[in-house]
Design a protein that fits this description.
Blueprint: E1 4-5, E2 11-12, E3 22-32, H1 37-45, E4 50-60, E5 64-73, H2 78-87, E6 91-100
Antiparallel strand pairs: 1-2, 3-5, 3-6, 4-5
């Protein structure tokens, strides 16, 4: 593939395709008991590009809860999502699943499953 040349004579890579959109995000989050998951879900649901939010509590300790947060939308913005979670006292432990592109591709079963 040929590269275009700038006026300075330095090679310039061909233009890149449009940025892929983030469609689904599954996060493992540690949060305090307050705010509750209703408040966090509502705060995340109003972010631009978010179509839906699901939060499941899977472990409760004396002071904190571990939750799985699943977000789906047309163009999720991870930085905004991270900021809302952080501002509400949460910490993202891991990003457990990501779906990008024009459509959401479901995981296909394999013989190992």
């Amino acid at each position: 593939m040929a590269f275009d040349t700038t006026s300075a004579g330095k090679p310039e890579p061909p233009s890149s395709p449009a940025r892929p959109t983030l469609r689904r995000l599954v996060l493992d989050v540690l949060k305090p008991h307050e705010p509750n998951i209703l408040a966090i879900a509502k705060a995340l649901a109003v972010l631009p590009g978010v179509d839906g939010v699901d939060i499941t509590v899977y472990e409760i300790d004396a002071k904190v809860e571990n939750v799985k947060i699943t977000l789906e939308g047309t163009d999720l913005e991870f930085a905004r999502i991270r900021n809302v979670i952080h501002d509400m006292g949460g910490a993202i432990h891991s990003i457990d699943k990501v779906s990008t592109g024009r459509v959401i591709v479901e995981e296909a079963p394999t013989p190992q499953d």
